[in-house]
Amino acid sequence: MSDFIVNIVHRPELAPEYAEKVTGSGKKDDIGRKSLIDESLSIFRFQQDTAHKNGLKTTIQITYASLFSPEIIAMAKEDHEKYGDEIALSLLGLPCRQFREKYHTEEFCIWLFSMEDKMRIVDDAFDLFEKAFGFLPSSTGSYFMDAELINYIKEKYPSVKCAIATCWEEGPKAYHTCNNSWYTFMDGGPWAPWIPSKQNSHAPAANEEEDSGIVAIPHLSRDLIACYDGNGSNFGTHPQNVLRGMIYDTKTWEYPYLYNLIDQYRHLAKFNNGYAYNMMFVGPGWLNKMGRWEAPYELLKKSYEDGMAYYGQLKKEGKLIDMTMAEFADYYRQKKSYEEPECALWRDILYGSDKQLFWYCDPYMRACINMDQGGALVDLRNYAAKLPWPVGIGTAHISDASYPFLIQEKYRAGYFTHYAGAGTVRSAKIAYGGEVADLCQCRTHASFRERTNDEGRKVRELLLDPVEIVFTDLSFKVETVISFEEGSSAIAFKRRIFDMSDPSAKVQVTEYMTACYGTTEYTERMEGITLGVRAGGGEEAISYEYKDRKITKERAREVYAIVPQIETYVSMRTDAEAEGYVREGYAFSPMFHLGFVGEIGNEEEETTWLNLAKGN
Amino acid sequence: MAQSGKGKLNYRCPSCFMRDLDIDMFYDRDKDEYYCIRCQFTGSEADVLAFNETVRIRYKAMNRRFSEEDFAS
Lengths: 616, 73
Hints:
The structure holds two protein chains of two kinds. By secondary structure, chain A is an alpha+beta fold. In chain A, helix 2 runs parallel beside helix 3 (70-83) and helix 5 crosses helix 6 (147-156). The relative contact order of chain A is 0.10. Helices cover 27% and strands 11% of the residues of chain B. In chain B, a hairpin with a 4-residue loop joins strand 1 and strand 2 (33-35).
């Protein structure tokens, strides 16, 4: 029996972020106009009624503006009494006349204020909330919350145990989608609930000492392929986002994709000890009476009703448990340990391909394996570094809240197909008789297995279907197993060669990682990075100078890079007798390269580990 | 000519949508056409709706309902 938990979240906004400007086009810009407030109230009422009609409880995230509305306060109290809805406090929805008169800014993202203002606004909102409801909230949230904001809230308001703390892969892609105008850069975080560390809210806590004291949930549950490959805002458990993506039949107004998305999330229980999670959070602007882009109000309304009806049906069938955010936080604390990873073997459910990605997240890393590229590692974040990264005015990053990558196939090329340069990826090249094939060229599928190793530790494994390499004078198969040991910051890649047309042949295998660091498409300064090789005969290292230099050593034990900009020590080691190498890049190709070159014969195997650590 | 405004529904530019850009178009009353402020796309309402259908061609599985077996395989 598995648990599929859903959090339904509503926020009464009074000045919905879209309704204010978009539907008000041509009208006087008046954030407090009565028609807008009346419409906002009716949208909130509609959302609440639709959930309740389907037997679902909600979390009402009271916005700053709502704290000045006796109608909203009364509605929330009534629904709390009648349906068990949780009354929480949102740090979204700040815009309103009272906020602007007090803070003299149109800024509406809590994480982008200075720390001084964050504290002031939090204290103000929590104080207003307590006065309105007579208690302090157990849940809060925003599109993003950095560690400093969470730590402040938890210290000052210990009643808070749950928060919406990121929107998965909302970064440069979302920015581009809005014609480079939407400053929500928060790539690199978990897609499913987690316990944020005190050091960086993206990175899960590894132990009690790192525990920020809250359970974080993502803003929406997003399609783990479509949202990664393309515009994130169209592919999530948000019915109107599905309409935004035009993923519906214009004649029938049907959108099976929404239900497929929910069902695939249900399926994730198979990889996570019988637990799966969904979150739906539709802001009122998406249900405004004037419609949204090409979708008329009737379609917006229908999609919300259908989404709720599907959750309601699953609940009636005993396949879903609806919880408030605070209830979920208690459940999560009982269900998960700090080091238990979140795993997702995800398939394409929209474009009609067989593409699979495997996502892995634990306190030490977030990693993505791409089966369309032979099991290459195509996205890697070093959570072992627990990189301090405060954001907002007055910090080094201001609006860039993303957790930096070492590998990111979209922003830094991935498997490289252009004529000059290099892309970030962790894969292997196999050579024989002057011919070379990269496993990135071999599409495959994977299955998932969980086992316990000899040390009693759990290991999550991805078993890739063998791929065939055909050269002029030799053909053979390659089997790959990728392992993640719980509590470890290493990823093991085991390769086995078999079915060689010439069993006496040996092929050259280069296990490699091409990497850099950053949060966007554009390169960062690489000076200061150290690249080194350790072998029995000693160690040799170079400091990055864009000179395309290379160090190689026979029977190397370890090849490594120290990236002080992101406090990262990343290394590779192998159980094969191999030559280790590191190579710096050059200005046109500002990457670094780590790898081992060895030989394997028929029915032989080798394992290479990629290790992550904190290091300067 | 008077300034342009948005239509009853805020159509997005289908050409920009194909490159993952959400750009509201404006409506030119004199020419009875929508136009994109980001690229050269122009078209009548019928043109826009027709282009929106071609946008969906990439979603080959848009109308398919997946089963539990599909996820398990």
